[in-house]
Design a protein that fits this description.
Elements (H helix, E strand, L loop, with lengths): L2 H9 E2 L6 E8 L2 H13 L6 E3 L4 E7 L4 H5 L4 E6 L2 E4 L9 E2 L9 H5 L6 H4 L6 E6 L10 E6 L12 H10 L14 E6 L6 E3 H13 L4 E4 L1 E2 L5 H12 L3 E5 L19 E7 L17 E4 L3 E4 L5 E4 L2 H18 L5 H10 L8 H4 L6 H4 L2
Parallel strand pairs: 8-10, 8-12, 9-10, 12-14, 14-15, 15-16
Antiparallel strand pairs: 1-4, 2-4, 2-5, 3-4, 6-11, 6-13, 7-18, 17-18
Helix pairs in contact: 6-9, 7-8
Amino acid sequence: MNPLVKQLSLTVKRKPTSRTERRNIVFRRIQDYHACLKQLTAAGIRPLKQVDSMRMICCHSSKSADWASLQKHPRISLIERDRRVKAHGLVNANLSRISAIVKSRIPWNVNRVKAPPAWPASHSGASIKVAILDTGIARHPDLAIAGGVNTITGKSYADDNGHGTHVAGIAAATGRRKIYGVAPKVELYAVKVLDANGSGFISDIIEGIEWCLARGIRILNMSFGLAGDSTLLRNAIRQAKRRGAVIVASAGNSGTALPQIDAPARYPETIAVAATTRANRVASFSSRGKGIDLAAPGVSILSTWLNGTYRRESGTSMSAPHVTGAAALLRGVRPKLTATEIARRLKATALRIPGGKNAVGSGLLQIEPAAR
C-alpha cells in the first residue's frame, strides 16, 4: 500500500458516525485515481461515491483528519467538505392545493415569457433532452418522463418532496390535462440529487451532472443553491459548459439580506435567473447581486405536484425552468446553437424592466423574439 493510500485509509471510515463527515477528494491524474480506488478496495474500503470524469471519490472520513497535509500531496488536486445545497422553493409559499378547473391550459407565466408563439418553429422542443436536477419527478398526467436516475440511493427517481415535480411542470408540462409548460414536447429526465427535505450533497449533484453528459443531455436545470462556495462544483459546471451544456440556475431567495447570489448561479458558466411578479417587478425574496443574467416569473406559479395534483409555489426555483424551457425551444429552432449563443440571444431579447442589473439582469425573458 503506497503512502497516500495508507494515509487515506487511516482517515476514511466505512460508515458514518457523529465523528465523521463527507469529503470529496480529487486526484490530479486519472491513473492515480484508479490506482487509489483499486488499493482502497483491496483494503476493504469502498468510497461512498466516485465520478470518473472528475477523478473524484467521496468518502465518510474522520473530522479530526489532517486534511491540510493530504491537500499538499502531489497526487491530490483538491479536497473539500461535501457541502449540502438546498432547493430554492420558499418554505412559506402558498401551499393550498389547486382543485378548481383552470380556465386556460396556458398559465399566465408561460404567456408572459412569450413561449407559445415559439412552439410552431421549435416543434415545442420535441426531441430536445432536458434534465431537472432536483428532488426527482413524480408521475403525473401532465408530465412525460423519458427516464432518470437517483444519485443519492441509486433507487427510484420518483419525487418525494414535490419541488422537482413543480419545476418540471413549468419547463415541460404537456397540457394533456390542465396546463402547458414552456416546452411541452421535450424529452424530460428526472435527476434526483436532492432528498425528501429538498437537500443534497455536492457529490450527488456532480454525479448527476456526469450522468446527464454521458447520455447526451445538454440542457440542465438547477433550482437549488448554497450561500458558500465549492471549487469542485465550480469545476464540474465549467466542464459541463465546455461539453456543450446549457446550465440554468436559480439565483436564490435571500432578497437583499446577502450581498451576492447563490452558487451555482453566480458561476459565469450558468444562466442565473431572478424572480419577478405578475406586475413585472423583481420579487421581494429574489436574491440580488453580481451575476444575474435574466428574470422570469416566480410568484404564485401554478404547476404540477405530487399525486397528480397542481399547486402554486413561489421562489427563484420557479423562475429558472422558464429559461430552461426557453433554451430547449431555441435548440429546437437552431440545433447548432452553442450554450454561449443561447444565453446571448436570451439576454439580448429580454424585456427591460425596473430593478437594475443586480436584481433582474438583462430583464424579463422573452422567448419568441429570441427564437426568430
